[in-house]
Specification:
4 strands; 37% helix; mainly alpha; 4 helices; 8% strand; 148 residues; single chain; two-stranded antiparallel ribbon; Arc Repressor Mutant, subunit A; two-stranded antiparallel sheet
């Protein structure tokens, strides 16, 4: 999952409706993750680039986008994550990571996508028939009538 919800400057709650993208393995994701881990500390784009392992050329653009999305604060040439919002952002990044791991761990095969898959599954119908031969005894014969 690569969409995190954001409806206002304090990130709102899980019912937010305005999405923004923070995709793993992108400069935005790496820079935001670095700033969340170092909440409250101020860094220049060059420092963030070096410590978050992103190119210095893209660091300024990346940080500007994060600032425009109100995910990071910008002041006098430095960027930082407000400590009051850091835990919430950390939880959102962890949710994205968990979703990615879930999809990466999912099986690649889709048995239902193959023609004839239904031939390998026993039939179950509303009368309780499962495709096996029926005996002459019905289920009503197995229950004794208490008035007899």
């Amino acid at each position: 999952m690569d969409v995190i919800q954001n409806s206002n400057s304090d990130m709102g709650d899980s019912q937010d409706s305005d999405p923004f993208l923070v995709t793993p393995e992108t400069d935005e994701y790496d820079a935001l993750g670095f700033l969340v881990r170092n909440r409250g500390e101020r860094y220049s784009p060059a420092e963030i680039a070096a410590r978050a392992d992103i190119s210095e050329a893209s660091a300024s653009k990346t940080l500007t986008r994060l600032s425009e999305k109100e995910l990071v604060e910008h002041d006098k040439g430095t960027y930082y994550v407000n400590p009051d919002r850091a835990e919430h952002l950390k939880n959102r990044l962890e949710s994205v990571d968990a979703a990615v791991q879930l999809f990466e761990a999912a099986p690649d095969d889709d048995a239902y996508a193959e023609p004839g898959w239904e031939d390998h599954v026993p039939s179950i119908d509303k009368n309780g028939n499962n495709g096996e031969p029926r005996s002459e005894t019905s289920s009503s014969d197995l229950v004794e009538d208490p008035q007899e």
